[in-house]
Amino acid sequence: MGLSLVLLLAVLTHAFWFVRALETRSRDHLSGVIDYIETGDAGTYIVLARNLRFHGVFGFEQSGPVTPTYFRAPGYPALIASLWLGEAPPITWLLLVQALLGIGAAVLVYFIGLRFGVGVLAGAGMALAPMSGAWTGEIMSETLYTFLIVLAIWFWLRDRHKWAGLIFGLSWLVRPTTMAFLAFVLLAAVFLPRLRKGAIIITAVACLTVSPWILRNLIVFHRFIPVAVAGGGMNLLCGTFDIPYHTDIWTEWRKEPSLQTGYDRSDPRSEEVYLYRALDRIKADPLHWIVIRVKQYPRLLIDLGAYLYPHSPTLTVVLKFLFLVGNIAVLLLAIFGGYLARSWPQLILFPIFILLFHVPLWVEPRYSLPMMPMVIILASVGVCRLLASYRKPGSRGGLRCGHSNMVLEKTAASDKSKLFAIGPVCCRMRNAFPRG
């Protein structure tokens, strides 16, 4: 019953976003030959996929010979290329696949949530999450990457380390961010002995998974490049500029001389220039850079729902306020839930990593999307514990918090939490988490 409810909510919400995205994409110009510079990241993915599909080369050129590149990761363009059957880009098929991935992420969140007694609440929260749903209608890698991360963590929680490593490796081919996360996991394992074996296996399998692409880069470019270089240097440099909120960011950046490198934007050498210029700016005034980072960092955590703004200015203000309050509430509940679920580092390490990883970098709300499934699970844990603490004295059983029949309990005989089915379909929170 619980899974059916989550699945129904996920299908309905993602059907809405799918139809909405089709209406939007029917008005843009991604169906023809496009200038990827003018259409941002979406255009680069389409061009890369087209060349991969019709020329068998991973490159940016739209005419003439195609030159290989290591600027972007191949995973997302490869997905688009695999769906490309005719002459026009497979926009409809891509959006449909992304809607299915969004539904799959909600189902995975449900199953992970069952381990903590919050399956329905967490699954429904993920199914209804507005920004995660909206981004399934964008030609961006967030939806694919988020699904892979959640799937990998699901395997990790089940101690299926080889499968987790394989999926983490595939996510690495979508976004090189995974490489930094695996390094973070290995560092955490130094202080968490029970993670060490799994962390080593996961990292080893992930490295094997991406090794063909690294070998390709080594052969073609005679350089050791762990998948791709896009984004790092530019985001670090952009994070040094004090750009006010409610500003057209890209218009301001196009005026900035530091972002003019003399290379094409898709040329990997531009990232090296960005990196050195960013370091120079940080060294010149480190205190000012810290102030800028403090001012910009909330952009990562606060989504004001711009993709849902109505025509009415009054309703827009109300919507912004509701999104602001909702974001803050979810984050606070997730912090509380993270404390309660601290015995399960597999669940909390990725959100911690994302929060730390983006401290020095330019941030946007969409950069937080990959951690949101885990944040929603932790927030659900926090909600159930708070509600359980306010139940009437003498009430029988526990808190009905959703259709889940699993509970997390601490046992004296083991240093890790165990799971036990405990009867009727309910969420019993008594003794579910350590109190200190």
Question: Can you put this structure into words, describing what you see?
Answer:
The protein has two domains: 2-29 and 96-378, no CATH class; 32-88, no CATH class. The chain has a two-stranded antiparallel sheet. It has 436 residues and is mainly α. Helix 2 (40-54) packs across helix 3 (75-83) and helix 4 (91-114) packs parallel to helix 18 (372-389). The model is unreliable at 31-38, 396-400 and 402-436 (pLDDT under 50). It is globular, with a radius of gyration of 23 Å. It contains 18 helices and two strands. Helices cover 60% and strands 2% of the residues.
The helix content, as a percent range, equals: 55-70%
Helix segment tally: 18
User: Strand order within the widest sheet?
Assistant: 1-2
How much strand? under 5%
Order of helices and strands: HHHHHHHHHHHHHHHHHHEE
- Unreliable segments of 5+ consecutive residues: 31-38, 396-400, 402-436
Q: How many individual domains?
A: 2
The number of strands is 2
Q: Let me know the largest β-sheet.
A: 2 strands, antiparallel
From the N-terminal CA to the C-terminal CA, the straight-line distance is: 34 Å
Characteristic key phrases:
two-stranded antiparallel ribbon, 2 domains, mainly alpha, disordered C terminus, 18 helices
